[in-house]
Amino acid sequence: MENKLLSSQEIQELRKSLPTWEEAEGKLVKRFKFTNFIEAFGFMTKIAIISESLSHHPEWTNIYSEVIIRLSTHDMGGITMLDYKLAKAIDAIKYE
């Protein structure tokens, strides 16, 4: 599958299967809350392994038990199928 910049219409259609993610400033964005820092960091570690396998890495912020993830394909200038694929994988980790 070719990685191309998705249109607004394509993003809205794909977001139907990612209802807890928002689109903001050309990125897919989601805030995750955990019980403590260890859980949050463990979650980030799992994402790091998947991200490395996809060669696609999130922009993220971690403050204690909260992780905010922003996904976009920087070299494409917006959201691509790679971001969608990573978002789906992240949700699978969180809700496994």
What does it look like?
The chain is α+β, with helices and mostly antiparallel strands. The chain has one domain: Transcriptional coactivator/pterin dehydratase (Gyrase A, domain 2). 42% of the residues lie in helices and 22% in strands. It has a four-stranded antiparallel β-sheet, covered by helices on one side. The protein is globular and about 35 Å long. The termini are far apart. The model has no long low-confidence stretch (mean pLDDT 93). It catalyses: (4aS,6R)-4a-hydroxy-L-erythro-5,6,7,8-tetrahydrobiopterin = (6R)-L-erythro-6,7-dihydrobiopterin + H2O.
Brief account:
Pfam families: Pterin_4a. With 96 residues, this protein is of the alpha+beta class.
Bin the helical content: 40-55%
CATH structural class: Alpha Beta
Q: Count the domains.
A: 1
Structural class: alpha+beta
Morphology call: globular
List keywords for this structure.
3 helices; 96 residues; alpha+beta; 4 strands; Gyrase A, domain 2; 42% helix; globular; 4-stranded antiparallel β-sheet
Topology:
Layout: H1 8-15, E1 22-24, E2 27-33, H2 37-54, E3 59-63, E4 66-71, H3 81-94
Antiparallel strand pairs: 1-2, 2-4, 3-4
Helix pairs in contact: 2-3
